[in-house]
Amino acid sequence: MAIVFIPSQLQKLTGTAQVEVEGDTVRAVVEQMEKQFPGIQQRLFEDDQLSPTLQLSVDHVMTRALSTSVTPSTEIHFLPVIGGG
Amino acid sequence: MKTHVTTTINGATVEFLCQPRQSLLAVLRDELSLTGCKEGCNNGNCGACTVMLDGLPVDSCLVLAVEAEGAEIETVEGIAEQGHLHPLQQCFLEGAALQCGICTPGFLVTAKALLEKNPQPSEQEIRFGLAGNLCRCTGYDKIVRAVQAASQASPES
Amino acid sequence: MSTEVAPDTQTPATYKVIGTRPVRHDSADKVTGKAVYTDDLHVPNMVFGAFVRSPHAHARIVSIDTSDAEKMPGVLATCTSADLPDPWDKVDNLGEGCVNYAHLSGNVLARNKALYKGHAVAAVAATDSYLAQEAARRIRVEYEPLPATMCVQDAMRNDAPLLHDELITHTLDDKPARPSNIASHIQFEKGNVDEGFAAADVVIEREFKTATVHQGYIEPHVSVALWNEDGRLKIWTATQGSFVVRQQMAELLKMPVSQITIVPCEIGGGFGGKISVYEQPVAAVLSRKCGRPVKIMMQRDEVFEATGPTPASFMRVKLGATKDGKLTAGKAWLAFDAGAFPGGVIGPGAMCVFSCYDLPHATVDGFDVVLNKPKTQAYRAPGSTHVAFATECVIDELAERLKIDPIEFRLNNAAKEGTRRVDGPVYPRVGLVECLQAIQESDHWKTPLTGPNRGRGVACGFWFNCGLKSSVTANVNADGTVTLVEGSTDIGGTRTSIAMQLAETLGITAEDVIPQVVDTDSVGFTDVTGGSRTTFATGLAAHEAALDIQKQMVEQAAQIWECSPDEVTVADGVYQGNGKSLSFKALAVEADKVGIPIVGRGVVDPQCSTNAFAVNLVDVEVDPETGKVTILRFTVCQDAGKAIHPSYVEGQMQGGSAQGIGWALNEEYFYGDDGHMRNASFLDYRMPTCYDLPMIDTIIVEVANPDHPYGVRGVGEVPIVPPPPAIANAIYRATGVRFFELPMSPPTVWNAIKGQTTGE
Ligand code: FES
Ligand code: FES
Fold it and tell me: Does domain C467-604 have CATH number 3.30.365.10?
């Protein structure tokens, strides 16, 4: 289970800004979300992977790994990827 | 058609053949393997190519190699003597006055010329004297301080 | 001394090496002219390449005829986009932002259309560089000029000429049906912004514009490529990341990474601009075609016109606060120019716009917009400087309107541990409050500024800093020194800051470590020197390698002393066991005689932001006759987490500040109506010289980063962020005029002052 912060542009699919979703990994959470809010996965994924324009923030960790494990208090954020100079 | 040129570089007589259109910078770097002077702009605006020509610092990218006939040239390679760094070089490395280092040879040549003319320059005189050399990394603070330190360390003072 | 370390933030641990200022390992090479930069290389049998570039800002390429050039004696090969494999629409994550290879390939050599003045269209290799340039002029390209769009707001209009006929806005929302120049739309929302503004006593909304600026590294882009008959490709190049160049080359040329070796030479500055490839693939193709090594070095005007500057921007920022000085809500609308291809720096811009403050309610909309300018790239804290200019100027105006001291107002609302950013995540321990307090305690703040036409300004800045992958190996030598092999190109002294962490961990001196930056065949994958990550992440790898060495040394000591490894203890580099004791060095000498070689290994991929904050305090004087702004005094305070080598931390702070000052006061791309840059030289693109600047005083705050054994945060990028707004706020105090456009160059300032006195 984890707390997913829904990007504002997807909130019309969920109706809320945050949802608590079952799952032990980010991938499982997204797959579970897809069951609740059909269509959400295709906005976040490309070829079954996280869209290359996105990164995840999972409890302070910036990652693109969908295998990252989550706990009930974990926050998942979908953010744009950033580069540095 | 190439022109034959005879010069003195860092104290030694050097002869080379060059095309009339080649700059002194191009010849120093490409023909004579003196790659210490750098090309940053090739049009006289960055100072990375500074060398001493008959006692004056010049942007070697703006000097034609043929103009070096009979001239005395000193490059960054000639600043250290017999394995000993010049006080300016020592102050630059101790004072962390370089980051990427591409501008450093030009600054050293210009600063040496400045100190030879004016052994005890004020901060403003240093800043004015080095204004023809661009550094994009350091914000100049540590370069100015290194030149100040060298002016205090130099025997003339 | 210009530097203070704010006392109450010092890390309690006492270190022997960290925090000292050893002479850096490569400095003798660099002060004698011996250091080898790419253009210093003369590879045997080398020839030279030159580009043909579009004279139009937007044009269809009708035909390219290379036959005349090829007939010239000494011309060995030509190349156009037809020589590059067909690109596919693959978007890859290079660790530092993502890249679309179809776009990258099209930027390296234009396909069908030239999208900006200076866009590379063809190239030629010849036996000398003058000949190559002559030959380039003989390549005939027929163009059909198209209308160009040069400014963000125009490019966003429905009737704007389209750069890419199939570009559909990338958004998480429903995709638009029609193509446009809007490459992406990002949005963040926190709380309820309408409620937030309703609760405010004062609301201020302003519009801001910033011009295109360039990183301005002194060394132009340069590479030597050698494509061998056995199919292996070797490239010597000036890059921030050799492995990222390898990856781009492999994709663009469709060959396995294992066939490519990238040799990073010394690099003359990068600041984000030497990550993308430009001339490398072209030099490679020319080399393949002529069978000889090919060097391509850009001229300075090519660097300005055809490599990636950082975007121009148009921004609208609105903030509300209560009478007692609490921010209640913020709203930002940001449009950044991406240049000719999608993928500008709007993402981080949108994430940074309110990142210094605890805002309960906010929305941010960010747009990445393509137009007929060179593809933009990162420039030191990419996107953050733009948005800080907007936000920090509005913050200053709010503080003034509320009659609250500008530092107190910022302290009242400063982001701290637990603050939820507008884009969602919550900050761990960060040091903005400490930086603001250190400024309040500084001699500069406590010394009143007097005199006419003078003013003092304050501003804050934020940058994430990243972690990413780094690998090192460390070989213990028979004399007790350690050779440290790393893949991070050293742009500003990182060899030393990384070596110092290895030395500290092993209990040896910095001089006993010999750092070497090696090619892509000689060390594990390492991400770019960028994102303020090198001292943090490669330093972390060095720390791991040191622990690995220590473990092996303990085992060897146990063997020599005939005891169990558990009985061997290590403290401060001294190994003890079975009643015996040896220093690291002495033990290494012994171990060399009896044991197997000791090689430490460190591989890391820390996935966290290290969150850097900086605050500027600046005093200016404005000449009412000319509009020229003189910086009288400048203090930058920054949270370094832990300054490994304080001189080089100060150097980053000073160098970043100077770039920020240039951005604030002078630097900009001037475009003519024809879309041509009018000032593509260092004479007319006016970067600060040392005569333009005062000493830059530094205050290093050390709020340890919990994610690093020595508390290191990145330091490289954030110092560029606060100078533009700090200077704008100072100019306001000096003149009574607020500025909403960068740069605040003499004509702009003069016109504004004149407008004010004549009541316009
Ligand atoms: S290369 Fe000569 S001044 Fe820049
Ligand atoms: S140290 Fe890089 S340009 Fe001066």
Answer: yes
Residues of chain B with CATH 1.10.150.120: 87-152
Give residue-wise pLDDT tens across range C136-166.
Answer: 999 999 999 999 999 999 999 999 999 999 9
Tell me, what DSSP letter sits at residue C597?
P
Mean pLDDT along residues C189-213: 98
Q: Where in chain B is the domain with CATH 3.10.20.30?
A: 3-78
**pLDDT 10s digits, C446-470:** 999 999 999 999 999 999 998 999 9
Nearest to C456 by CA among C727, C693, C737, C654: C727
What is the complex's ipTM, to 2 decimals?
0.97
What is the CATH code for A2-80? 3.10.20.30
Domain boundaries, chain A: 2-80
Tell me, yes or no, if B80 comes closer than 8 A to chain C by beta carbon.
yes
Nearest Cβ partner for C31 among B102, B104, B133: B104
At residue B128, the pLDDT reads 98
Residue B155 in this model has a pLDDT that exceeds 60? no
- Fold of the B3-78 domain: Ubiquitin-like (UB roll) (3.10.20)
- Reading phi first (left if > 0) and then psi (alpha if -120 to 50, else beta), residue C729 is in alpha
State the pTM of this model.
0.96
For C:191-250, CB contacts with A below 8 A are 215
Mutate to test the interface with B, among C32, C644, C648, C681 (most CBs of B within 10 A): C32
Strand pairing partners for C465? none
Q: What is the CATH number of domain B87-152?
A: 1.10.150.120
Domain C1-11+429-461+611-760 belongs to what architecture?
A: 2-Layer Sandwich (3.30)
Predicted confidence (pLDDT) per residue in C350-401, tens digit: 999 999 999 999 999 999 999 999 999 999 999 999 999 999 999 999 999 9
Residues 6+ apart with CB under 8 A from C199: C320, C322, C328, C329
Nearest CA to ligand 1 atom 3: B44
- pLDDT tens readout for residues C91-127: 777 665 678 999 999 999 999 999 999 999 999 999 9
Question: Which chains touch A (3+ CB pairs under 8 A)?
Answer: C
Return the domain boundaries, chain C: 1-11+429-461+611-760, 467-604
Q: If you count residue pairs, one on B and one on C, with CB atoms under 8 Å apart, how many are there?
A: 186
Mean pLDDT of C527-545: 94
Q: Which residue of C has its CA nearest to A59?
A: C425
CB-side neighbour CA atoms (13 Å) of C382? 33
Kindly state if the Cβ of B2 falls inside 6 Å of ligand 2.
no
Instruction: Tell me the CA distances in angstroms from B59 to B15, B40, B50, B67, one per residue in order.
Output: 21, 11, 5, 13
Interface contact A60, partner C, CB < 8 A: yes
Structural Rg of chain B based on CA atoms: 15
